[in-house]
Design a protein that fits this description.
Elements: E1 5-7, E2 13-15, E3 19-20, H1 26-39, E4 43-45, H2 53-63, E5 71-76, H3 85-97, E6 102-107, H4 117-129, E7 133-139, H5 143-153, E8 159-163, H6 171-180, E9 183-187, H7 201-210, H8 214-224, E10 228-229, H9 236-243, H10 252-259
Helix pairs in contact: 1-2, 1-9, 2-3, 4-5, 7-8
The protein binds nicotinamide-adenine-dinucleotide.
Length: about 280
């Protein structure tokens, strides 16, 4: 089973399908990531605020998988955007992950009331230049935040990791990405299990047509749309199922029918609004 690679604007490749560990308790993270690595995932998405980087690091170390075969992302939490704190934060994350560099480091939220996200982006550029993260990007940034950091630094993020699933597609951000050579990562790709994606008739019809599950169809929809995706589960069967998506493809009509799910008024959002989380 071959996971496609997306080439980032840094020149480096990222596996298009990975494994996310949001809300995986610290004591369960090592087990979940070990299982994901056994199943074949090589791309892990964590964050300082998830408080499970130690478990991720333990699983990586114990796996014996060569470092160059892995793609590890972590994120700078909002309370570390100012001053030289991003440098402290990446070093703390690397210690916990037992790594000398990550593959991708992201500013987790713009937290616009603090007005330090552009400063944080400048610090991420320094972190990249110091070799502590091969590529750098952002998360939850809207076009206004992206415009500002590019104006201030001249550096386009490799990715913006945003809430994205069929019911909430954030076309303003994806259009900015397409125009500026930035990749999109979908967080909450399954609607975090909160949005009833699996009751969607277009998803069910495609699942029946391909003899796959609704979750597999939704993951495939992200892949067909060119998004980078890392669904989360702590259950072995689902970890396997979510990786078993390379023996079928959705046709254009199926992609279009699923894409039509977005109510277009933001009501499909399941997580925080980027302007409201500070
Ligand atoms: P998700 O959309 O991956 O949903 C996970 C939930 O979907 C599970 O808890 C389970 O209830 C359900 N599920 C998973 N596999 C299933 C299957 N095969 N069948 C049926 N139900 C299934 O949500 P997520 O974990 O929030 O997002 C994925 C990753 O994105 C996270 O783990 C994290 O790495 C990242 N993330 C980033 C941000 C950010 O602000 N940057 C925010 C949230 C998540």
């Amino acid at each position: 089973m071959t996971v496609p690679t997306v080439k980032l604007n840094s020149g480096h490749g990222i596996p298009q399908l990975g494994f996310g560990v949001f809300l995986v308790p610290p004591q369960e993270a090592e087990k979940a990531v070990s299982e994901a690595l056994e199943v074949g995932y090589r791309h892990i998405d964590t964050a300082a605020i998830y408080k499970n980087e130690e478990g991720v690091g333990a699983a990586i170390t114990k796996s014996g998988i060569p470092r160059e075969d892995l793609f590890i992302t972590t994120k700078l939490w909002n309370d570390h955007q100012a001053d030289e704190k991003p440098h402290d934060a990446i070093r703390a994350s690397l210690d916990k992950l037992r790594l000398d560099h990550v593959d991708l480091y992201l500013t987790h939220w713009p937290a616009p009331e603090k007005d330090t996200y552009s400063h944080a982006w400048q610090k991420l550029i320094e972190i990249r230049d110091a070799g502590l993260s091969t590529s750098i990007g952002v998360s939850n940034h809207l076009p206004e935040h992206l415009d500002r950091i590019v104006k201030d630094t001249g550096v386009v993020p490799a990715v913006d990791q945003i809430e994205l699933h069929p019911a909430h597609q954030q076309s303003d951000v994806t259009e900015w990405a397409a125009a500026n050579g930035m990749a999109i990562e979908s967080w909450g790709p399954l609607g975090q299990g909160k949005y009833p994606l699996f009751d969607n008739p277009a998803v069910i019809a495609a699942a029946e047509a391909h003899e796959k599950t609704p979750a597999q169809v939704v993951i495939r929809w992200h892949l067909e749309r060119g998004f980078i995706v890392f669904p989360k589960s702590v259950h072995r069967e689902r970890i396997e199922q979510n990786f078993d998506v390379f023996d079928f493809q959705l046709d254009d009509d199926q992609v279009a029918a699923i894409s039509a799910t977005d109510p277009g008024d933001g009501s499909g959002r399941v997580g925080a609004h980027p302007l409201e989380l500070n």
